[in-house]
Amino acid sequence: MPQTILSIRTDGQGLYEFTDRAVDFVRAAGVGEGLLTVFVCHTSCSLLIQENADPDVRRDLDAFFRRLVPAADDPAMRWVIHTTEGPDDMPAHIKAALTQVSIGIPVTGGRLVLGTWQGIYLFEHRDRPHRREIVLHLGA
Prior knowledge:
- The chain is of the alpha+beta class and 140 residues long.
- It has helices at 19-29, 55-68, 89-98; strands at 3-10, 14-17, 34-40, 45-51, 102-108, 111-112, 118-124, 130-139.
């Protein structure tokens, strides 16, 4: 079963699209029918399938999650205890818990079954730059 690990560098909170890398992996694997499992190996970022046509969607999602789970130094977050790596630490874990760390995408005819405007994103929840690892596993 084909498998690879992608490395994605982030420069702070936001959505980082890697659809093209997943498409290339599936194409190179030569598998006609199957399931691509996408898994992120971290607890302070997550994965999303989201619109990739209008960048306002990404900006609005990022703004929504910042409002939903503000930094730990926000008065609304006084209850947070885990701030070992700064005020974005526990909020990043909460955001990851609210979203997903694994996505399954069908493969038909050697291609990912994604809608016209769907893209695959790493959703970075930390303020500092990171190097994130994402496992792509193609099961036939």
